[in-house]
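Human: Can I borrow your eye for a moment on a structure tokenisation matter? Separate attempts, laid side by side, tell us more than any discussion would. Could you pick a protein and write out its sequence and tokenised fold? No explanation is needed for now; the record alone will do.

Assistant:
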Amino acid sequence: MSDVENDRRKRKKKSTWNSTNMRKAVGKVINNEMSARQAADRYQVPRTTLNDRISAIKRGKEMSTEPLMGRFHNIFSLEHEKILVEHVKDLANRLMPLNRKEFLYLVFQLAEKLKLPHQFNKEKQSAGKNFYYSFMKRHSDLSLRIPESTSLMRAVEFNRPQVDRFYECLETLIQTFNFTAYKIWNCDETGVIVLSKNMRKF
């Protein structure tokens, strides 16, 4: 039997227990209704894993009762992930969205700052693709992509006072000249260059 098959069987064996049974076992031990050995035998969960989760809970840590498949597990707590998601969204709202590379660098820096155990690439100072796909699956409302160019003028001028001013001017013009709906057109600035990037040479 090859090493790959052996590793696959070991991982499968480690993760055959049921998360519902683990929660019940943890509850019984925490409430002093059973010993760890009794709970592990009754609910068919690994006693070592049960003890690890109970110890973590007693230390005030947030611990998942889901079985781990292989060597990959959640680095951050739910609270840390929530903060990370809000930060990424906040940057996007400020017209500074992160691309995938920048996001993975941010994740690495956060793990280092919090002194969390991880297996990220310390040489590249970046989290890996496994973390990325897992994180994005858990937070499907996020979207990381290459940001489009936005002129400084457009970013600065697009705010509530300026938008309100635009509609006030529009209302004044409509009332003054009695414009009907079919006489109002949207002017596209396709032919007007407003960005310094990729300027055309004439």
Remarks:
- The chain has nine helices and no strands.
